[in-house]
Amino acid sequence: MLSAGRRRAVEGAGVVEGGGQRSGVSRGLVLLAGRRPTWRRGRVGRGIAAVEGAGVVEGGQRGSGVSRGLVVAVGRTVPWRVVGVGAVVGLLVVWLPRLLGGTPDAWLGLNLLRAAALVFALGLAFLLDDPARRLTTPVPTRRWARTGLRVALVTPVAAVWWTGALLLVPAQSRPPVGPVTLEAGATAALALAAASVVVRFSEEPEPGASVAAGLLTFALLAPALIPSRWDLFVPVGDPAWAAAHVRWAAVLTAAVVTAVLCAPEPVRSLRSIRAAS
To answer: Whole-angstrom Cα distance, residue 109 to residue 273?
Structure first.
């Protein structure tokens, strides 16, 4: 017989020692866990592993481990089509002068890369879209793990894409790689931070469209709204080039910190707060 503590630890999974029952685990839980549960009979070690890989551990705590099955499951929920469209359009923006038979100068090369980074960031604004968010709130795998896994899956793609965008600009027109990569990283981080804020403080399952619209509006108005002493969009060779990229580094840091702080689940949802009030 199971002790009271162990029975509470596994009763949500519907497992009885020696019985191997499956009735208590919903299909959604197993699918989000990323792989089929391993059902074991009898005692194994110090307790019963009811659902291996689904984040169910003794004592009812939620696990934070990442299995290969979870990687596959989360990878299927990433909006690859939208990210791919942003990547292709961004490369076309950089390649446009060559398509027209011209060679961009240094100023145009810099602004083409900035425009490409913005287009790719608009695609990344959809990265946290999840139509099933209301259904996956109570799953064992924590939100920060799922969100971090999405970002980790897209990061290599973004690195390869950005390398290709840089190579499409002729060497004589290419701006310094480090500073312009900092600008691109900060732009992408802003998109992810804005999406994280919307997911954290609202119950909108697909914030991508509104985040992308806001980011595009901000990018178009920023050169006119930002005071000259805080200018971010300076040309290569400008005396304020180094100072501007210190500010870009601050933008990147603030965006990353915001995204990290908004990654966990809220203690109380806005709906419950409104209902209580």
So the answer is: 50
Taking the CA atoms of 113, 119, 125 and 126 in sequence, report the sign of the dihedral they define: negative
Torsion angles phi and psi, residue 47, rounded to 5: -175, -170
* Alpha-carbon torsion (211, 213, 214, 220), positive or negative: positive
CA–CA distance, 275 with 79 (Å, rounded to integer): 33
HSE-CB for 131 with a 13 A CA cutoff: 3
Cβ atoms < 10 Å from Cβ of 11? 14
Query: Please, are residues 39 and 15 in contact by the beta-carbon 8 Å criterion?
Result: yes
Alpha-carbon 151 to chain mean position:
4
As given in the structure block, the two tokens for residue 5 are: 């503590």
Reduced to 3 states (helix: H, G, I; strand: E, B; else coil), residue 254 is helix
CA distance 233 to 235: 7
- Beta carbons within 10 angstroms of residue 228's beta carbon: 7
With 0.85 as the threshold, say if the pTM is over it: no
Residues 6+ away with beta carbon under 8 Å from 185: 252
3-class SS at 56?
A: strand
Using CA atoms, how far residue 118 sits from 47, 91, 112, 115, in Å, is: 51, 11, 10, 5
For residue 247, the SS3 value is helix
pLDDT tens across 152-206, in order? 999 999 999 999 999 999 999 999 999 999 999 999 999 999 999 998 888 888 8
Whose CA is closest to 13, among 52, 70, 42, 45? 52
- pLDDT digits 0-9 by tens, 89-112: 999 999 988 888 778 889 999 999
| Separation CA 25–CA 139 (nearest Å) | 11
Cα-based distances in Å from 143 to 49, 84, 111, 118, 138: 22, 24, 36, 26, 10
- Name residues whose C-beta falls within 8 Å of residue 111's C-beta, 6 or more positions apart in sequence: none
